């Protein structure tokens, strides 16, 4: 650990929550250098939906390396890339009647978002992008302007322009349809809210605290966009790739977004990859107008192609939903059992958690969980949500074991609180 | 190829220059699906300095995968990351007396640049960043504001703010020290050039057309920064990692930059990775204030660690310089032999090329080269430079063969021009 | 009229509504070159609260000119300026316990607003300014960013940054307290609404359509500002100087704004003048840091000093309120009499009018009024409000005559509508 | 004076240089409340070209007031405005073959500039405006972005965007044509200097330190603008209205600017007024798209119309040039006589002065001059220029007397310096 403290920047963060050196991982489990085992309810912040080192995904990769397959190809054509495009088209897009073209930005979520908003702006000739309270879209300047978190915004060190904030579903309580404000500003020539190029939305805000947009709200948002010819971008970087139970998180609401941003689990393996889906009429960059050295990460293409197989039929969806139900049940029970938690179960699919009403307590629960061998992180602007996000492939035994540790950690944290001690030794 | 045409975005670019599907690669050679062999004078735009699939780098990676090594770790501690930090500290930083801390941004060059300018702004409380004509720093909004290329800037679809352009070395001819203007504006309270947070500079502009900053100019730039307490950022993403003959491109000039951006070949394998080096007093992000899902690409750490071995002594540097001399000689001869080229040899190290004075001709030379089995790209705002950028590890036989194809391609393109035909069938 | 059509820019506007050449004016009346008389319910858009050419104000001006009094003095000291400052301090500020200092910006409302937001930004080190839907704050770039009107915003020809829009009182219907959203965003670290430098508000939106902020809403707004140390700016340019019945429009709500912007009627004569009032701790410009050639318009100081006499006791306030009551009664009756108007009486003091529910009808009423010898303008984003804004000094006979013309014009416009003709010959 | 210190904002500035209360003025002279007389070499920073209270201009104004002429008219038609437009067309535009239309912005120079850049942006659809080192264009946000002075820019309290700075003529010494840089960036697709909407230039920088653009430089600038279809804006607010010897300062260079900004002396009396001249194809605002309460200052129209008479023949021009020659001779002699001044005579017409090479000395000279009964101000980013700017109508006796006081003040300031005392008691 000293190496990190001495030589790595202070910006390092998860290492502070999980203070050990990890050495290997498989499925839903990791082991540190001391051989200690951890259950993973964190899943690389959503980048490891298919678990760690899944054989069916990694073996083809080893074969590929052994054959001296192309590693890096920018946007040249390679066999591995062709296979991915073909698979994605056949397994994901075609069955969903999605006519979208594939744009490969740099292999990070923020790059997918940057490419999306650039396209929205050049396609419409308009500048402003509507984004929502508690949104998270990335850390590069264009994406950061769209991101809600105050601390992260301060990191820009300069004024962030071009974004226009609107309240997310539920932001003003259950009885207020927050889209009334947005809708009204668009009808009103004096609102001062310029007609935007695009709206960017997460259907379920991961970093923002597991806030779920209702189907009705999402559909009204889409209708508003259609009426005013505003481009609808769904940032499905964390909630997509099956995390909420369907490949895209917007499937239950029946949305038809103009642009979709994917990253995190799209590579199937944890390798860096991102993908922007565009309706054909928005395919308006000139050749090379948005580029980047690592758009052609062929190892990611190889593993991504393997991961697509999970989506060939609906068995995987069913299994996710079954696990999700188990998690919901468990969390509801936990909240009911511990009124001092002031907990509310939030999220959907395998992206659930508990909004904890006591300041600092969510973090303490995660600290206890780590001591007990479970990796979990908090989310929300004040780290007030305990987030349960196991790999989608987790076996029942692992899920149950993890949930049981969570229950213990919760009890322990509450116990400490009662006895006046807050920090885990 | 149809798959790409039908389903991939129009933004795809290199695929148009190299219209074949590549299947495998080794060292300085690639093969397409038809088994055709190509010599690589492109090197992944500088991401493949150590060649394709070098055994000494890839075998440890396969071992790592076989051991179920961690793939993805955000900024958690892993054994693979620790080994890289230790190696980088011992082999690169310590021998050069560089006290810099390592910040791992998202695994792309633009992310390294974005992290650098954010830090410069929060550290100084100032907003503007000085950048240079024909600079290339990336495609996300913060980096794009610093980038010179008009077409790429238009891709933003909105006003790009926060950058202040200055003329690069040589921009106004040999007799004008372009820093006079910058220096004067800083001394003059009425200049309208606000004291900037930082200067960002490439010592050798790769995308901008192989423009070399002289040692004297770089040293004066550093002195100006010191005098006015401006942070000096070297973007060494393309010119670093040995490309110009030393690990950092600024070593011959003896610069001591406050921040260094690395990416491209830092992973040693073509896998996505980026690294921002900060002087300790600039290590001012809060934990998590700049984050990103793929900061912990452990496969890249594994291969990067292996690649560091090339720098344990100066044998590698010597070999690069020997090859560079060979390239220079060959290019000079080529230019001399073909006055209609109106060619000027440009660049240094293994990042050289010919600025071609005839519009469109550089591209035609590269097209001919491709037909003859050599991958080369152009650079410069008008694609006017033929760029010779082989893997640093290329064997003499490969280098000579490539240079000989270049000579043939040049003659062929000139011949076509004389006979009035421009496009390669 | 030809001279204007041939040589003046298309941007000319009121000349289209009032297509005649005016030659002289007195009190509440104007005469055109043909000697036609007009009653003034427009009052120079609020710049002529004391009527045209009031003897008690203009005679001292003629004396001043005859004595070769200083005309133009930048921010040098003059006798005329001293007299104004003294009078303003004694008659306006001291009795209201206002400790504010006087800053004289350029002699336009927009300049007062620009000075206010500059001060708010340098005083707080923060950038964003909260402004409201349907706000109007001026046409220079800083003020325009705060202004709501879409057409006027488009006039900028570039992205307008630095403003953050919030819904004005009543924007979302009677049952929604629109400040809930603003308040929530400030408490929420993930809201994406950065802590602003200032809030700028009109207590009664003149250009925006006579929208009245309630006392409760204004007081809550002030409380929010205090809690979060946000500077509260009241733009009292149109609603101030007695227009709503008290010198400052915020007096009934008991607000204590940090900065107040005044212009329009502050000079008492229609001569250009503006004034920014600052709490002493916000007096943070360096000498000369905000300047402008016409800050020292001494003719305006002379007439402004005379106008202050109206405020030495409360007789003037009483008379305004009596007239306002008469206007209200008359408008309510008019609305009740003509259900097809779909009218709602809006505003307060002598800044009232009718929000007309039929598209285009408000403008037609004003056209008819002009033909009948009454000057009135519309306001609102869609020119949907008929605005009654006579000089505050109007005699009863003039007020009644004007209101009677308004009644006729309304009937005439409705009659035309019924008969299918819309445009006045 | 106490009234000002107690109640006026710290931003007050000239009052600090000229610490007395002025009471009346006539021609080239002012008197303070103690009856002390001052010769005016300041002329309201260029707003009083026709002197103080000229009978031929003010008497028609008094007549106008006595006739109850319209004071304030926004952009309605008035007899006074018609007369001005007609006179300006006949006396100024027609003889110079200028097809420009007249736009009346708010009555301040900065408003003329704001209207000009808005038009340039909407006409071209481009955002950036080229401006020059040491430019001064005003204090509202759009104009301030174009202004060079660091202290004034800091007053914005936020990032200033949309301007692109280029070196003014002579900025890099006599042997460098500073337009080489601008021209090169426009030819170079990689320069990072986006094609601008407009160039805004002062032919003689008043606030910036009396820097004169040569005829050759101005003509080349115009040619560059024509070639690249960039709008050429001349800000003639200080240098126009005869200040340099011709009505427009750009007449000797034969420029044909697309937009001209006028203010300061355009009203002829020191009353607030501004005027933007547009080529007809740039007359692209919608009605009301740029507005402002005080666009129709009829007193200014009345006096402006009278002032136009000076330009009916070339006698006035001749007299200005004769006086200018006298000033030049005198300044050259002064500089020659006092080598420790390290003085350089700068400027042209009746906008001349001495660039003083000793820090702080220019200000000391002006302080001494004030004590001796002469008003003069400094200019330049470091207040390093003593500026001689009498009313154009000054009689020879006044000019000589003023120059003689300047000579004494210079000697006195140098004497103090030699004896080690810097501040005037």
What does this protein look like?
The structure is a homotetramer of 425-residue chains. Chain A has helices at 2-7, 14-17, 43-46, 55-66, 79-93, 109-124, 141-144, 150-154, 179-187, 215-228, 298-308, 315-337, 361-371, 396-418, and strands at 21-26, 29-32, 37-40, 77-78, 101-103, 129-132, 163-166, 198-201, 204-205, 211-212, 231-235, 259-262, 275-278, 344-348, 351-355, 374-375, 377-379, 385-388. By secondary structure, chain A is an alpha/beta fold. Chain A folds into 2 domains: 2-54 and 314-418, Aspartate Aminotransferase, domain 1, CATH 3.90.1150.10; 58-311, Aspartate Aminotransferase, domain 2, CATH 3.40.640. In chain A, the strands form 4 sheets. Chain A has a 7-stranded mixed sheet with strand order 5-13-12-11-8-6-7, sandwiched between helices. In chain A, helix 4 packs antiparallel against helix 11 (298-308). The two termini of chain A are 17 Å apart. The model of chain A has no long low-confidence stretch (mean pLDDT 97). Chains C and D meet through helix 1, helix 2, strand 1, helix 3 and helix 4 of C and helix 1, helix 2, strand 1, helix 3 and helix 4 of D.
